[in-house]
Design brief:
The chain has 6 helices and 29 strands. A 7-stranded mixed sheet has the order 18-19-20-21-22-23-26.
């Protein structure tokens, strides 16, 4: 649902021991990248069996016994789709112990129609350990390459150039045959331009890269592994249209996104530029369908909503362009229990926590738990996604000002859109 502003809103080597973002502490020694070839199997003994393609080839692995929280996080489906459950095409972090046994795994990102984008410095990354952030990961279309560099991006707003390690390992993943083979940089296809632009090109080459260090050393980071996927992703003709960059009234959002692209299906087509609303205090950092607002308060950075899943790279880029670091966000205020508004909460929350932060995530009690506090226990909460449920720290106190110093925010109940859609006065 589009929200409008009138100052009233509807709104690779690690040491031991290790504590992972999903809450599992084990004598784990390695984190590596894996491409899931089939839906995971959740076993009765609270373990999970997963088949992946990795630098070790094709592996079928079973985790150690997981906590109930981690098991639910990895196996519970989204109420609207399967997007939140690990399935074929998902890239995961494989976390193994000294003997090479799988301790657990973390979902890094899932492709939307064969495409997924991720910045080097922000977004999914390997788990932190001993207060040291994990190594970075990036993904996108292969836009260019040299003997020493590779350029990834979305062909629109997102383009980054990376240095390659002299001994970079290159792998080709065949997503149809479920095979992986060692390859070379020479064999890596590059997405071509037509008439000088990418949006006219149907065939796109997707790749994922792993770096040799974390975001604290991003200026010196080099790619040590590169995975490219065949067959190439083919973009439908009906959305091969020049991006318009409009945050409101975009033709990509016409007819509820059915005419062209929605952010959850083709995120690269729906990005837009951020802009300042109130000087020094309030910024638009969303895309051209869902509004996200960043507040610079005297008590820290406050983000209203977290946007679509698969579009996080756009939001982190927009926040940085406004002069802020996404890892510095102190509060995440979610308006309601729809995935286009909470879709990247888990990604952002984990990224901040991997860096040593601890953001406070707010949601409405009614969308989470239901109406039992009003004497209607039969009206259950809306949110089923473990990713956001496990992030929620506090519930709004309705009709009471939240005091952030130089900015105050007043949440109140609004009926109709969800069980308790949050309306905010600023």
């Amino acid at each position: 649902m589009k929200k409008h502003l009138i100052f009233l809103f509807l709104s690779l080597l690690v040491s031991t021991p290790m504590l992972f973002a999903n809450g599992v502490a084990e004598n784990a020694t390695t984190s590596s990248l894996g491409y899931v070839t089939e839906d995971i199997t959740d076993n009765k003994d609270q373990t999970i069996t997963i088949t992946v393609l990795s630098g070790q080839g094709k592996e079928t692995l079973t985790t150690k016994t997981l906590t109930a929280e981690t098991f639910a996080l990895l196996t519970t489906k989204n109420q609207f789709s399967n997007d939140m459950k690990v399935r074929k095409g998902t890239f995961v972090e494989l976390i193994k112990d000294n003997a090479g046994n799988l301790v657990t795994f973390n979902k890094l990102f899932q492709p939307a129609n064969g495409q997924f984008f991720e910045m080097m410095k922000y977004g999914p990354e390997f788990s932190s350990h001993a207060n040291i952030p994990g190594n970075m990961i990036a993904s996108g279309w292969v836009l260019d390459k040299t003997a020493n560099t590779v350029t990834l991006g979305d062909g629109n707003k997102f383009t980054e150039n990376y240095s390659l390690a002299p001994d970079v390992q290159v792998y080709c993943i065949d997503s149809e045959k479920n095979t992986i083979v060692p390859a070379t940089l020479d064999s890596l296809p590059v997405t071509k331009k037509i008439d000088g632009v990418y949006w006219k090109t149907a065939d796109r080459q997707q790749a994922v890269v792993v770096f040799d260090t974390n975001y604290l050393n991003d200026a010196k980071a080099k790619v040590v592994q590169l995975f490219y996927i065949t067959p190439q992703t083919v973009i439908p003709k009906d959305i091969m249209i020049a991006p318009d960059d409009m945050p409101n009234g975009s033709f990509f959002a016409e007819n509820g996104g059915k005419s062209h692209a929605k952010p959850n299906t083709y995120p690269s087509y729906t990005s837009t530029e951020p802009f300042e609303i109130v000087p020094g205090k309030m910024y638009f950092v969303g895309d051209n369908e869902v509004a996200m607002y960043l507040f610079n308060t005297s008590k820290g950075l406050v983000l209203l909503d977290s946007g679509w899943p698969n579009s996080g790279y756009q939001y982190w880029r927009n926040i940085e362009k406004m002069g802020f670091n996404p890892r510095d966000i102190d509060y995440i205020l979610l308006t309601h229990g729809h995935a286009d508004h909470y879709g990247t909460t888990f990604e952002l929350d984990r990224m901040i926590k991997n860096a040593g932060g601890n953001p406070i995530v707010y949601e409405s009690y009614e969308d989470d738990k239901g109406y039992d506090i009003y004497g209607y226990p039969d009206i259950k909460g809306l949110i089923a996604d473990q990713e956001v449920l496990q992030c929620i720290d506090k519930y709004y106190v309705n009709d009471t000002w939240m005091d952030f110093g130089n900015i105050r925010i007043y949440p109140t109940v609004t009926a109709g859109h969800t069980k308790r859609y949050a309306l905010f006065y600023f």
